[in-house]
């Protein structure tokens, strides 16, 4: 019988404040201190088990042992995911909903989105050439919002793109925030849900007739496992869960721009139009730079693993950032090196920027392919379709903030078309 006294228990009544202060390094700091991949702590007054490492990740993605229902705190549902969304579902209900998402995000859709993003970048070049400076994060989030809505057949006026993009980003950046930034994210969600709910109702009433293969149509006619149409509000929440992650790729792209600037030799190699090198670069951006700090799940039923008995209902956090910077799994993990992905298994559980396991059956992000293809398109454009100067600025980012971003948003000047 496993003894739970054998694993470290962090002393103290609660460590919620420490989690907010330490951010991405909260789990890694303790795993390093205790010299373990498994320990207990307390967050929000409750016992929490923290895990790291590929074996822990494999266990975490065992649907017989873990579930996502009740894993995300309600405050995160109210800002990031939406209440009752796919991220908190399990079993047949989750499988059925996931298939609908995957049907929208196949290879053809990934390539179409990447092509649309490239076209938007082409259209943006002339205005950028006339600007004194261009902030990549700001410009790219607007481009991705415009493209996401066009691709999904969501009608949005050009003058509303900026506000909608900001609202999507506010939802994402409310994740680890308290106070005004959290409430800003909740306000953004409420506003966007109401807007999308009206659009869903317009589709159902026939006032809007999108293509039946579009994300708008698919979400408007979405049914639950009992064959009942989702309410317009729930359908709107899932439509947002299609659009918001596409806009959020702007964070990765901003980090990619920093990497290109700080590693000119790597940038030079990307001018060779080698698709493998491009994909390795993109994957290294997703490993090296911070985005998702950790993942949460609840124990589905009692089980023992690694000399520890997991009790039903216990909240478990799986480290992402710390595992991506663990020297046991990565050579020189604190150095940016696309060669990390030269011979790496695609299903390696030590690399889980958007989750692990089978995306068709489990909780791995269905839009991961879109993320990779869109990033490749933008990186290729920055390298091969334009040139620019990078003025002095602050590229630093805080690991205490979840999510985080280079402070300058990456400024460029003297933009020219190649």
Share of β-strand residues: 5-15%
**Order of neighbouring strands in the sheet with most strands:** 1-2-8-5-3
Query: Would you report the number of β strands?
Result: 10
- Taking the alpha carbons of the first and last residues, their distance comes to 66 Å
Number of discrete helical segments: 15
Assembly classification: single chain
Instruction: Report the mean per-residue pLDDT as an integer.
Output: 94
CATH homology superfamily name: Cytochrome P450
The biggest sheet amounts to:
5 strands, mixed
Tertiary shape: globular
CATH topology: Cytochrome p450
CATH architecture: Orthogonal Bundle
Helix/strand-derived category reads alpha+beta
H/E element order: HHEEHEHHHEHHHHHHHEEEEHHEE
User: Radius of gyration over alpha carbons?
Assistant: 21 Å
Question: What's the structural domain tally?
Answer: 1
Q: What is the CATH level 1 assignment?
A: Mainly Alpha
The parts where pLDDT drops under 50 for at least 5 residues are none
- Helical coverage, percent range: 40-55%
What does this structure look like?
This protein is an alpha+beta fold and 418 residues long. The protein has a single domain, classed as Orthogonal Bundle (Cytochrome p450). 49% of the residues lie in helices and 11% in strands. It is built from 15 helices and ten strands. The chain has helices at 16-22, 26-34, 54-60, 74-81, 91-104, 107-130, 136-152, 161-173, 180-205, 215-220, 232-262, 264-269, 275-288, 321-324, 368-384, and strands spanning 38-43, 46-51, 66-67, 134-135, 294-299, 303-305, 308-310, 315-319, 386-389, 411-417. The strands form three sheets. Strands 1-2-8-5-3 form a five-stranded mixed β-sheet, with helices on both faces. Strands 4-10-9 form a three-stranded antiparallel β-sheet. Strand 6 and strand 7 form a beta hairpin. Helix 6 crosses helix 7 (136-152). The N and C termini lie far apart (66 Å).
């Amino acid at each position: 019988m496993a003894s739970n006294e054998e694993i470290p228990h962090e002393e103290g009544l609660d460590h919620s404040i420490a989690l907010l202060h330490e951010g991405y390094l909260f789990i890694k700091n303790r795993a390093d201190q205790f010299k373990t991949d498994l320990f207990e702590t307390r967050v929000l007054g409750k016992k929490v088990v923290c895990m790291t490492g590929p074996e822990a990740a494999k266990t975490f993605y065992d649907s017989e042992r873990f579930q996502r229902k009740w894993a995300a705190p309600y405050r995160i549902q109210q800002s990031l995911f939406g209440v009752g969304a796919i991220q908190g579902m399990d079993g047949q209900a989750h499988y059925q909903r996931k298939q609908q998402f995957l049907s929208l995000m196949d290879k053809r859709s990934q390539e179409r989105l990447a092509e649309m993003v490239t076209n938007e970048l082409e259209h943006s070049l002339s205005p950028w050439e006339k600007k004194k400076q261009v902030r990549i994060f700001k410009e790219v989030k607007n481009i991705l919002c415009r493209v996401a809505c066009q691709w999904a057949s969501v009608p949005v006026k050009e003058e509303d793109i900026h506000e909608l993009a900001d609202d999507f980003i506010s939802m994402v950046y409310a994740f680890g925030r308290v106070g005004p930034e959290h409430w800003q994210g909740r306000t953004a969600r409420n506003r966007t849900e109401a807007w999308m709910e009206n659009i869903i109702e317009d589709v159902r009433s026939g006032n809007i007739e999108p293509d039946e293969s579009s994300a708008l149509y698919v979400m408007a006619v979405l049914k639950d496992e009992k064959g009942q149409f989702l309410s317009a509000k729930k359908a709107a929440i899932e439509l947002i869960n299609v659009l918001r992650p596409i806009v959020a790729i702007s964070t990765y792209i901003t980090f990619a721009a920093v990497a290109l600037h700080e590693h000119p030799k790597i940038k030079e190699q990307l001018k060779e139009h080698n698709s493998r090198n491009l994909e390795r670069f993109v994957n290294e951006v997703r490993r090296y730079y911070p985005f998702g700090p950790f993942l949460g799940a609840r124990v589905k039923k009692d089980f023992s693993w690694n000399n520890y008995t997991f009790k039903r209902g216990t909240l478990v956090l799986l480290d992402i950032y710390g595992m991506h910077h663990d020297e046991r799994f990565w050579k020189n993990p604190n150095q940016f090196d696309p060669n990390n992905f030269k011979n790496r298994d695609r299903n390696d559980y030590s690399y889980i920027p958007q989750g692990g396991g089978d995306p068709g059956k489990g909780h791995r992000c269905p839009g991961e392919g879109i993320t990779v293809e869109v990033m490749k398109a933008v990186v290729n454009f920055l390298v091969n379709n334009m040139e620019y100067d990078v003025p002095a600025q602050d590229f630093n980012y805080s690991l205490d903030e979840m999510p985080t971003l280079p402070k300058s948003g990456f400024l460029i000047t003297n933009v020219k078309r190649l």
